[in-house]
Each structure stands twice: as structure tokens, then as C-alpha cells.
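Hello Y.,

Per our agreement to keep a running log of every chain we model this quarter, I'm adding this entry. I've kept the format consistent with earlier entries: sequence first, then predicted structure.
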Amino acid sequence: MANNEESRGLKSLLDWFANRRKSGNINLERQEREIADGLWHKCPKCGVLTYTKDLRANQMVCTECGHHNRVDSDERIRQLIDHNTWRPMDEHLHPTDPLQFRDRKPYSDRLRETQEKIGLIDAVKTGLGQINGLPVALGVMDFRFMGGSMGSVVGEKLTRMIEQATQRRYPVLIVCTSGGARMQEGMLSLMQMAKISAALERHRQERLLYIPILTNPTTGGVTASFAMLGDIIIAEPKATIGFAGRRVIEQTLREKLPEDFQSAEDLLKHGFIDDIVPRTQLKNTLAQLIALHQPVLTTPHMVLWETMSLSSTVAE
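Predicted structure for the entry above:
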């Protein structure tokens, strides 16, 4: 009799666990709903969960493995530019559809949907600001807007920013992240490569500093133009940098490429870039480089006084 009661008790206990297991998905969904969206972030590389506030405080770099998560243009400006010194430029420039391009949907519809979704007019933000008190002209590309592709507005905004920097004698910094030229604008997008490069050449002739910061990914026409024209070229760790994609190159060469091909580390080893700087050290590194390349201002009176002092010393 006792054995029967024990068996019934064990069976009811097993049934209870089985019922709990069946309702587990419902409870899990309820728990997930109780956790606010965006409160935690799972690292795509090592899988570690990090409190989003702590991750943002570390500039979106995983504290466990050092993975550099992609950041948008607003976040990048907050990371680099001193508080209350940012002055945006040419915010009124809007892209158009001069070729009436259509793939799966009209280009004009694609532009409108992207603008409404992410709140940007195009794939770059430009402006003037300060880094540790030093004035700079900064352009920041945003991969969320059609893969950071370079269209007419991107080219025009960067060109105007560079020309303004040349006039003010400011160093130029461009944070690059792009899939290349925007195919929906055809030849008009390719013309931006030459236009930006010409503006940078005029900037260089004035003996002014230009530093591109290559982030993941920097490819196509951006790599083939202004991303590689810097006086000092900096990249973030593990960033993909190249022109054509790995698959295209492998099919052309008919051979397997190394695993680290087109990585920032591989480019540094072969001399294509000058340094790899972690994001947490980028602002101070840029400030040091800008300070070292500040022009030495000497008035004619100062030069004359130094010459007279030197002559009198030699006479003595």
C-alpha cells in the first residue's frame, strides 16, 4: 500500500516537471519581455553578455575580447569631439535621383525609406570641432545608410569640409566605413573620388595635415581614393580594408587567400597603413599627432630679432 502511494507521488512529481518543461517557453518569453530592449549586448565574437551602459562607456569595445563593435556617426562624434564644440556643416544637402535608377525598387524610394529608418539624410556627417582643445575638420561616414556608399552628397560634403579646413588651416580627419561608390548614381558617384582627391591635394599643398581613420569595413572606391591619401593612415583593430571582395579575388586568382587577408593587421605588415589604434586610445592619439604637426608661427620681427642676436653672439 505504501509502495503504491510512493509510486503515485513519484508519478505526480514527474508530471509536474513535465508540465513545467512544456510551459518553459512561455515563462522564458515572459522573462524576456520583462528585460528592457537594449539593456544587454551580446558580443558577436566571444558571446559575452555586457551591460550596454558599460559597453558604451568603453566606446563599444568588448571588455572581454577587445572586439570593436560598429558605431554610428553620432556616437563616433561623441567619442572624438570635445563636448559642446561640434558645429555641423551642410546639413541641408539632400541626395537626388538624376539617373532614375531602379533595381528591385526605385532609388528614390530606397533613399526615402533609409532616411526615415535611421534619421540621416545621407551616409556622412561633416563639421568643425575640437579634439582636446585642438581645432579640426571631421567627416564621419555611417555604414547604416546604404552600406556607407559614396554618392554625390557624400562627395560634395567631404569636398566642402576639406576646402573649409584649407581656408581655416585646420587638419582634416575622415572616419571611413563604406562598401564603396553608390551604384545607383553610376558615373556621378565615381566622379566623387576625383573631386575629394583634388580637394585633398590642395589641402596638402598648403602643408596641412590629413589623417583618415579606417574602420570596419573600408572597401571599394573609398579605399581607392581618399581613404589611402592620408599623411598618416590609422586603422582600428581587425578592420576589413580592401578594394574588391575576397570572393572576387579568389575567383580571379583561382587560389585560396590567407585568413587575415585584407585585415588591418595584414595591411600594417605590408606597409599600406601606418598604425593600428584601439578605439579607446584614438582620441588621445589623434590629439598628439595634431599637436606634433601644428605649424610653427613666426613673425618677421621674431626672425629679425633671432638673426640679430645670433650675429652679436658670433661677433663676441
